[in-house]
Specification:
The protein has two domains: about 20-155, Membrane-bound Lytic Murein Transglycosylase D, Chain A (Roll), CATH 3.10.350; about 185-280, Beta Barrel (Barwin-like endoglucanases), CATH 2.40.40. The radius of gyration is 21 Å and the shape is globular. It has helices at about 1-20, 50-60, 65-70, 115-125, 130-135, 160-175, 260-265; strands spanning about 30, 35, 40-45, 85, 90-95, 105-110, 150-155, 200-210, 215-220, 230-235, 240-245, 255-260, 275-280. By secondary structure, it is α+β, with helices and mostly antiparallel strands. It starts with a helix and ends with a strand. Helices cover about 25% and strands about 25% of the residues.
Length: about 280
């Protein structure tokens, strides 16, 4: 009986230790984990009043991504104090502009058995071994199990309560409309999968510039001028096709992925001039 009780105590202790290793978005030190497909994620504990839409807004993810990472979610409902896995690959950055350093938090990873500096560079970060050593002030390439090292930076999107209220209203309104006439004359689609034949996707900061005048234009550094690319808002799950008319001017910071016209921003429900989007082309 005593042995059985001891086993139960040790098991509960092990669970408690495991939970202390989970660092949420609000933590001073964010530690990421990786799934079987090598996608990084953090863990979030649900607090009072939080909903799936709140989490999608906070972490700029689609409902599909959230559900895929958390098959335990039933009937699109989350439970108070429930721990959820939040994919953050779209929020990770490896080069940040000093002007915007306050928008980023350092991201760390706990070394597992048999991992080396080279395997970390290959599977856990985009930094090379020299850069990784410099970021962590490592004197040599030796790593220890359970050692915590910095592997990236993470964009810290802060949604004000007024902005969330407006987004929530837009989300509710869009679900009540059976069909909407597309400003792209049939090219818009609320599903992120309709451009699955496109070869390239990037995710990051998008800037809205200019008035909403019915013109759907975008500046992008890699897409070919004259082509159409998709700008997708994962929070409202709305997308629009915009025509590439040039490259992003050099006066924008390096973390800006695209600059879109006011009409594009309005069509996908962006409520500020700086927002997060998926870009496919």
């Amino acid at each position: 009986m005593l042995k059985k009780a001891l086993v139960i105590i040790l098991w509960i202790s092990a669970l408690s230790i495991g939970k202390t290793q989970n660092y949420s978005f609000e933590s001073d030190k964010i530690i990421v984990q990786f799934d079987a497909q090598n996608r990084p994620f953090i863990q979030h504990q649900v607090t009072k009043g939080q909903t799936i839409f709140y989490l999608r807004t906070k972490y700029a993810i689609s409902e599909a991504d959230l559900i895929n990472f958390n098959p335990q979610i039933k009937a699109n409902q989350i439970i108070l104090n429930q721990w959820l896995n939040i994919p953050v690959d779209h929020l990770l950055q490896y080069e940040i502009d000093p002007q915007n350093s306050k928008q980023y938090k350092s991201v760390y990873y706990k070394i597992q058995a048999k991992e080396t500096l080279l395997s970390i560079c290959k599977n856990r970060t985009q930094w090379n071994s020299k850069n990784l050593q410099a970021q962590n002030n490592l004197l040599n390439s030796k790593l220890q199990v359970n050692q915590i090292i910095k592997i990236a930076y993470l964009m810290d999107f802060k949604i004000e309560s007024k902005e969330f209220t407006k987004l929530n209203s837009l989300n509710t309104a869009s679900k009540q409309i059976d069909s909407i006439e597309s400003p792209n004359a049939g090219l818009e689609n609320s599903s992120p999968n309709h451009l699955k034949n496109y070869k390239t996707e990037s995710r990051g900061i998008t800037i809205s510039s200019g008035p909403s005048n019915g013109r759907f234009y975008v500046l992008h550094n890699n897409a070919r001028r004259g082509t159409l690319i998709e700008i997708y808002n994962p929070i409202l799950e709305k997308s629009i096709l915009a025509k590439v008319i040039g490259k992003i001017p050099s006066n924008y910071t390096k973390d800006v992925q695209a600059v879109v016209s006011g009409s594009v921003a309005e069509a996908i429900g962006a409520i500020s001039t700086k927002f997060f989007a998926y870009i496919r082309y």
